[in-house]
Design a protein that fits this description.
- This protein has a domain of about 120 residues: Ribosomal Protein S5, domain 2.
- It has four helices and four strands, in the order ααβββαβα.
- A four-stranded mixed beta sheet has the order 1-2-4-3, with helices on both faces.
- About 5% of the residues have low confidence.
Length: about 180
């Protein structure tokens, strides 16, 4: 208790002697054992692999700016929006993907991803498929105002990046053309 006010005092009395910093006895040098350090080497799981680089180096060296971000306006975000597409839509399928599409009331195309555990058991596989689908969608320049939902098939998890890109580009192109021919006829 503080003698002057009658309140509890939580001060701690510290010794005035300063302790000298001592080297850690477990380390052989001030910075550890540098010879056996693995911090300069990356493990196989760190960083993107050369196979999964979505924008090739040659594309960036030409002065082109890589598209960034995937705004909320470009995504299907609510279950009702997905339900609308699943309920009544045009369909394009191959051995890697099924893409569903339906006209929307927005002024731009939107993307939804439905990559199931049945198609790719591991999260890393599902995330790779999602990244590829988003990137291919972003690079499409002439898509009509439609909602697209991408579903993966089990074969997609083992496919090469070029196969995945080609498949998705064909689906988006096919569905965009169908949409254009239906509105003109």
């Amino acid at each position: 208790m503080d003698h002057n006010s009658g309140r509890a005092c939580y001060e701690t009395h510290l010794p005035t002697k300063q302790y000298q910093a001592q080297p850690d006895p477990w380390l052989s040098s001030p910075y550890g054992n540098q010879e056996g350090s693995t911090s300069n080497r990356s493990t196989p799981r760190q960083g993107p692999s050369a196979v999964d680089t979505l924008i090739e180096r040659s594309e960036l060296d030409d002065g082109a700016v890589a598209p960034r971000g995937f705004s909320r306006l470009q995504r299907l975000t609510r279950p009702g929006e997905y339900g609308r597409v699943f309920g009544d839509s045009q369909r394009s399928s191959d051995r890697l993907f099924t893409v569903l599409a339906r006209k929307n009331d927005c002024s731009s195309p939107r993307l939804g991803l439905a990559i199931s555990k049945r198609a790719a058991k591991l999260a890393v596989q599902r995330n790779r498929l999602k990244r590829v689908a988003r990137e291919v969608f972003r690079l499409q320049v002439d898509l009509p105002a439609m909602d697209f939902v991408v579903l993966a098939r089990p074969e997609a998890k083992h496919a090469q990046l070029s196969e995945l890109r080609s498949s998705l580009e064909k689906h988006f192109d096919r569905l965009a053309r169908r949409s254009g021919s239906m509105s003109h006829g």
